[in-house]
Structures are given as structure tokens and as C-alpha cells.
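[job 4471] stage=fold_predict status=RUNNING
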Amino acid sequence: MFKGAWALVKGISLLLSRAELRAVLWRMILLLLVLFAGLTWGVFELSTAIGERFIPTGDAWYIDFLAWLLSLFAMLLALVIGIVSFVTLGSIAVAPWLDELYVRVGRLYGAQLKQRVLPWWKSVGNSMWNSVMPLATFIPMAALAAVFLLVPIYGTIVATVVWSYASLKLLSFEFMDTPATFSGWKWPQRKAQVEGNRWFYMGFSGLAMFLLVIPGLNLFVLPAAVVALYPQMQGEDSVSDHTYFPEA
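[job 4471] inference complete, writing C-alpha cells
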């Protein structure tokens, strides 16, 4: 897990230290900011709605504890939905710029990648399609978490764990979309990559999820993830941690 988290830290460092990468970042930052503002409002409203609908009232000895636990779950649920929505919709909205960013990262590592010449709408459409299968794996686990909510007290704890794991796995697929597309990977290859490197992606997406709740810093996470995953997607043996980057 530490290895995945450290990979994201290095990705953020590289993104902000290289002028050619920052140039692409600034083009997408405003759109990501608008998207984040809209989803922040949505998360607040969703959390309030869940709380009003499900938090119990009464005189039983356990009501206060159960209400606190369900309030915490409601907040976590709304927050995770907001984060996943931000990454998914952000990946779709800024897909052409993420493509260009990945090409520039490849050149830093000595690869001669060619940017896909596609209309904006087609690039966005491809990104939307690549989000379908990860959602198909996420929905059953989300449903399972909902079932556990029917079990008093302990069910809420289990539901939180299941929901968090499913969300981290979904984020892993979203973060790897641009690199996987450049590699020509279909769904079976993407699934094998995530499941074969489970703890790397749990650490990577776990730190990403934490950073995504920090205003300002969260705008850099999605592009930084594309930068960070280049070595992982190319294979540890093909990209050295000591690759030399000339000064910008």
C-alpha cells in the first residue's frame, strides 16, 4: 500500500515541477474547479437528505449511538459519492487534456507516444464507455453495503468497510483509464492489472481519496494520477525510478 501512495506523491511532484506538464494542467484546472463546486453542493444536500430519512429517534438506550453511527455513515456515503463522481466526470470532461498530459509524461521517460487525434466529443465518449464496466462491478458491492445497513449497529460498520473498498477499487479503474487506453487495454486487461496489484492500487487510491477532500489540492489529483501511473502501466522493469529528466 505504501508503494502505491508513494507513487502518487511522486506523480504530484513531477506534475508541478515540470513546465511542460504544468502547461497542460492549467488548461483543465478551471473546468475541474467548476465541477468540484457543483459536486460539493450536491454532497452537502445528499448528506442532509440521508440523515433526515434514516437517522432514528426514540428513547431506547442505543438510539443516540445508532444515530451517531448512521450520521457518520451518511456523511461518508455522500463524501465517497462526491469523490467518485468528481473523478469519473472529471476524467470524462478533461479526457483530451489527460491524453496530452500522458503523451508528455511518456516523452520525459524517453517514449515516443503519439497523441490520439480525436474530436473532443469522441474522446469524451470513449472515456464514458470505459467507465461502464467498472460501474458494473461497483454496483453489486454497493448493493451489498445497503443490505448490511439493515443490520443494527454492526451492519453499519460492515457496510462502511464494504462501501469504502468498493469505492477505492472503482477509483483505481478511473485513474488508470488514460494509461490503459494508450496501452490498448480492454476490460479484462484492466481488471487483471488492478486485481494483480491490489495493494498498490488500494494505497494509491486511498491517498488520492484523502487528498480529494482537501480544497485546492484536490484539483491536482486527477492529472497527477495520470502522471504517476505511467511507470506502473509500463512495468517496473521498463521504467527506472532514476530516469534522468533534463532541467525544464
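[job 4471] summary: The chain has a mean pLDDT of 80.
[job 4471] exit 0
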